[in-house]
Amino acid sequence: MENADFSPNQVKTLLSWSAPGRPFRKRGKEYYINVILLALVIEVILFLFSQYLLMGIVASLVFVAFALATVPPYNFHYRISSEGVTVEDHFYLWQELYDFYFRKIHGIEVLHIRTRAFLPGELIITLGDISKDHIRSVLLPFLPYREVIKPTFMEKSGDWLTRNFPLEKTHAASK
After folding, report:
1. Nearest to 72 by CA among 20, 113, 126, 137
2. Distances (CA, A) of 6 to 12, 20, 82, 96, 99
3. What is the DSSP string of 106-162?
4. Please, what is the angle between helix 29-48 and helix 52-70, to 10°?
């Protein structure tokens, strides 16, 4: 699908594939029980301080966590062209994108493309059957590749919480 011989006025598809919309790992019963117990402890503390609105927010976050852990993602269609990157119906010009790097999430290779704009900030694209070397070779003429990305405070905090307070025993082995 790669073709470097194209005129400036012609849009060429360099790479196209379908893959799940987000990294997904099936969760065990232990995960759900631990989430419910943690939520109940937080709910009791918030109830004692009469924080009813925060209680509703915690309940809604638990619902979202259950929904994301239960329902597998559907496949998205990704396309890299001479003009930019397309994710489903959203098109991003090369001028709107900043750089890219790869990271493993739940044992799945994921492409991260950072944007110049604050929102969305980062496109997170699962690779599916495509190798990361192939995607890297297609993206390198258009975007700089970052070999090492310094984790943010939030990522470090999340990793620390996951390591020290796992919601299921198998989680540490898959990361």
Report:
1. 20
2. 7, 30, 9, 22, 23
3. TTEEEEEEEESSSSS-EEEEE-TTS-HHHHHHHHTTTS-B-S--PPPHHHHHHHHHH
4. 170
Q: Are residues 97 and 19 in the same domain?
A: yes
Q: Which residues contact 41 (CB under 8 A, 6 or more apart)?
A: none
pLDDT tens, residue by residue, 90-146: 999 999 999 999 999 888 999 999 999 999 999 999 998 999 999 999 999 999 999
CA distance 145 to 60: 38
Q: Is residue 2 a part of any domain in this protein?
A: no
Residues 79 and 129 grouped into a single domain: yes
Q: DSSP letters of 43-73?
A: HHHHHHTT-HHHHHHHHHHHHHHHHHHHSPP
End-to-end, the C-alpha distance of the chain in Å comes to 33
For a pLDDT cut of 90, what percent of the chain falls above it?
79
Are 98 and 149 in a shared domain?
Answer: yes
Sign, CA torsion 81/84/87/91: negative
One-letter amino acid at 171 equals H
Judgement on whether residues 65 and 123 belong to the same structural domain of the protein:
no
Domain limits for position 44:
27-71
